[in-house]
Specification:
The protein has helices at about 5-15, 20-35, 35-45, 50-60, 75-80, 80-90, 110-120, 130-160, 165-170, 190-200, 240-250, 310-320, 335-345, 380-390, 405-415, 430-440, 445-450, 475-480, 515-525, 530-535, 545-550, 560-565; strands at about 90-95, 100-105, 125-130, 205-210, 215-225, 225-235, 260-270, 270-280, 285-295, 325-330, 355-360, 370, 395-400, 420-425, 450-460, 470, 485-490, 500-515. By secondary structure, it is α/β, with parallel strands linked by helices.
Length: about 575
C-alpha cells in the first residue's frame, strides 16, 4: 500500500482536491496510524468519498459501479473468500470471461491487492471504482445473503430427502418487533428474509418486490421511485421465503390461491419500521410486495416537503379554518398521505378532537384517534364515517374518497361545522370538481363546502454532490418554456447517489383556493377549462410552471419536469 500512496496524493494535489500541506499532514499521520491515505483524508474532512471516487475514475479512466443497484454474481463471490474481500476492501462482481474477474474497489491504486487477487483466482483483475463505505456495506450484505441462500438450499434438500415439510417455516416464530435482531444461529430462511428487510431499510427503499419465475426468485427494491434488482435466489427457496414472511405478517400460510394482506413491525437501529405485506398468486407462485413505512417520519413538517412559500401559506390558512373540505389529489405514490399527515401536524393540539379514517393507517400520531378500514367486518369508509360524526370531532381526515356515499358524507360533515381533509385521484386541481360532481355531490353543496384543492406529484431531486450547470439552448426553449440562456442543472452521477444523478424526491404542485368567483363557477357547472383559465388569470401557476420553478432553482432536472407533467 505504501508504494502507491504518493501516487494517490499526487493525483489529488494535481486535481486541486487537496493542498500540499494537507497531503503532508496526512502522510505524517499515516506513519503513526498505518491507515490508508484516503481513509485519513476523508476522516480529516479534506475530501469526501464521492469526490475521491469521481477523481479516481476520471484520472485513471476507470468505470464507476453502483453497488446498491448492481448485484455480484454468486460465482464471483465464491471465487473470493469473505475474509479476503474484507481485508482487501473489494467486492467481486463477476467472472467477466474465462480468465478475468471484475471487482469493485475503493482504492484502485492498491497494486498489492490486485496481485493477491490474481494469484488467488488465477485470473486477470479488472477494477471498477466505488466509495469505501459502499464497498464495506456490500461485502457484509452480499456475503451474508450468499451464506443464507446456501444454508437455506441445504435445508430444502434435507427436507426433500427426509420427507419433512417446511422446516424453516416453524423454526423461529418470533415477535415481529424483534425481527431485526435475529442472530446467526437462526434458521437460514429466517436470516435470508431478515437480510432483505435490513437492506431495504439501509437503502431507504419504499417497497420490496419478491417475484417468482420459473427458475429464480428476483428481489427488487424501489428507491426514490425507481425499481432496481437487489438479489436473485434459487426458485426452490420461494415457498420457504413466502411462508416466513406470511407468518410474520399474520397471514394464512396454507392459503396460496387468494390474495392476502398483512403487517409486520420491525426495529432497525432507532427506527420503527411498519411493513405492509401484500401477496398475489401468479403462475410461478405468490408475488409479494412489501411497503415500508418509517414511523419516525410521520412528523415531517410541511416546510420540508418542497412547497413554495406562497403554497405553504395557503395550505396553513386552509387548515386553520373551522369547517370545509381541503382536498389533496394526485396519482398513486404522489405523496398525498405524507402531505395530509404534515397538515394534521400543523393543527394537532390538545384542544381539538382529531379523528382519521384510513386504509391502511400509515403512521401513528400521538393525540389523534386513528381508525383503520376493514371491509371484511363491515368497517367501510362510509359506515365508519357516520359513526365518527357522532364522536364530536373537530377535524376529520378521510384517507380517500372512494365512492359516492363517502363523498356525500364528507360534504355533509363539512357543512355541519367540521374541517374535513381527504384525498382524491385526479390529474389536476380543477379536475377534482367534475370528479366529485360525477360521484353524486350536488354543485351547490360542493361550492359551499370546498375550501382548497392541492394537486401534487413527486419528482426526483438532483444529487447536490454531482449535479452540473448547463444553459438552455434555443431548441430546449421550445420544449420546456425556459428562456434560452437560462442556467439550470443536469444529473451526472456519483457514489452519493448510486450514479443515478438523483437523490431523494421533492413535490411539485398546483393549488386552487376556492374564492367567491370559483364558487359561482362551480354552482353554474363551469367546465374544467374555464376553472383552469380562471386560475391562470389570477396568477396561480399550473403544475408545469411549478416544476419549471424547481428546474430554475436547480432542485430537479428538465427531464423530470417533462416526464412528470407530460399531460399538462
Amino acid at each position: 500500500m505504501n508504494k502507491t500512496v504518493p501516487y494517490l496524493g499526487e493525483i489529488l494535489v494535481n486535481a486541486g482536491a487537496i493542498s500540499d500541506e494537507e497531503l503532508d499532514s496526512a502522510l505524517s499521520e499515516q506513519d503513526v496510524s498505518h491507515k490508508s491515505l484516503d481513509e485519513i483524508l476523508i476522516k480529516n474532512g479534506c475530501i469526501t468519498e464521492s469526490i475521491l471516487a469521481g477523481l479516481l475514475c476520471r484520472e485513471l479512466r476507470l468505470q464507476p459501479v453502483d453497488l446498491a443497484a448492481e448485484s455480484p454474481q454468486p460465482e464471483a463471490l465464491a471465487a473470493v473468500p469473505e475474509n479476503v474481500a474484507l481485508r482487501l476492501n473489494i467486492v467481486p462482481l463477476k467472472l467477466a470471461d474465462s480468465d478475468s474477474i471484475e471487482v469493485a474497489a475503493a482504492d484502485p491504486l492498491d497494486a498489492y491487492a490486485a496481485e493477491e487477487l490474481e494469484f488467488l483466482t488465477n485470473r486477470h483483475v479488472k477494477i471498477r471504482v466505488a466509495a469505501a463505505s459502499d464497498v464495506k456495506k456490500a461485502i457484509v450484505n452480499h456475503y451474508r445473503v450468499r451464506s443464507s441462500v446456501h444454508d437455506a438450499m441445504e435445508d430444502v434438500i434435507k427436507q426433500n430427502s427426509s420427507g419433512v415439510h417446511s422446516g424453516p417455516i416453524t423454526v423461529s416464530q418470533i415477535k415481529a418487533e424483534d425481527v431485526a435482531g435475529i442472530g446467526a444461529d437462526a434458521a437460514p430462511v429466517v436470516r435470508l428474509v431478515n437480510s432483505i428487510f435490513d437492506r431495504a431499510v439501509r437503502e431507504r427503499s419504499s417497497d420490496i418486490h419478491i417475484e417468482p419465475s420459473e427458475k429464480i426468485t428476483r428481489v427488487r427494491f424501489r428507491t426514490d421511485g425507481t425499481l432496481f434488482t437487489g438479489l436473485e435466489v434459487p426458485g426452490n427457496l420461494h415457498l420457504s421465503m413466502a411462508a416466513r414472511i406470511k407468518i410474520l405478517a399474520g397471514m394464512d400460510i396454507a392459503e396460496k390461491r387468494r390474495p392476502q394482506d398483512g403487517r409486520i413491525l420491525i426495529k432497525a437501529g432507532n427506527s420503527r419500521i411498519d411493513l405492509r405485506v401484500s401477496t398475489l398468486p401468479s403462475i410461478f407462485g405468490e408475488k409479494i410486495v412489501i411497503r415500508l413505512l418509517d414511523q419516525n417520519n410521520e412528523m415531517m413538517g410541511i416546510h420540508d416537503l418542497g412547497f413554495s412559500e406562497a403554497y405553504e401559506k395557503m395550505l396553513r390558512e386552509a387548515v386553520s379554518l373551522s369547517n370545509g373540505i381541503v382536498l389533496v389529489t394526485g396519482p398513486t405514490g404522489s405523496g398525498k398521505s405524507t402531505t395530509l399527515y404534515s397538515l394534521l401536524n400543523i393543527i394537532n393540539s390538545p384542544g381539538r378532537n382529531i379523528m382519521t379514517l384510513e386504509d391502511p393507517v400509515e403512521y401513528t400520531i400521538a393525540g389523534l384517534t386513528q381508525i383503520q378500514v376493514n371491509e371484511k367486518i363491515g368497517l367501510t369508509f362510509s359506515s365508519v364515517l357516520r359513526s365518527m360524526l357522532r364522536q364530536d370531532p373537530d377535524i376529520v381526515m378521510v384517507g380517500e374518497m372512494r365512492d359516492s356515499e363517502t363523498a356525500r358524507l364528507a360534504i355533509r360533515a363539512a357543512l355541519t361545522g367540521h374541517l374535513v381533509l381527504s384525498t382524491l385521484h385526479t390529474n389536476d386541481a380543477p379536475g377534482s370538481v367534475s370528479r366529485l360532481v360525477d360521484m353524486g355531490v350536488p354543485n351547490y353543496l360542493l361550492a359551499s363546502s370546498l375550501r382548497l384543492v392541492l394537486a401534487q406529484r413527486l419528482v426526483k431531486a438532483l444529487c447536490p454532490h454531482c449535479r452540473e450547470k448547463i444553459r438552455v439552448t434555443p431548441a430546449m426553449e421550445l420544449e420546456t418554456g425556459l428562456a434560452a440562456g437560462t442556467e439550470v442543472c443536469t444529473p451526472v452521477g456519483c457514489p452519493e447517489c448510486r450514479f443515478t444523478g438523483y437523490k431523494g424526491r421533492t413535490v411539485i404542485a398546483e393549488i386552487m383556493p376556492v374564492d367567491r368567483a370559483l364558487r359561482s363557477m362551480i354552482i353554474n357547472d363551469a367546465p374544467e377549462e374555464e376553472l383552469r383559465a380562471y386560475l391562470r388569470d389570477t396568477g396561480l401557476p399550473a403544475m408545469r410552471e411549478d416544476a419549471r420553478r424547481k428546474v430554475k432553482e436547480g432542485v430537479t432536472s428538465i427531464e423530470e419536469m417533462l416526464i412528470s407533467t407530460m399531460t399538462d
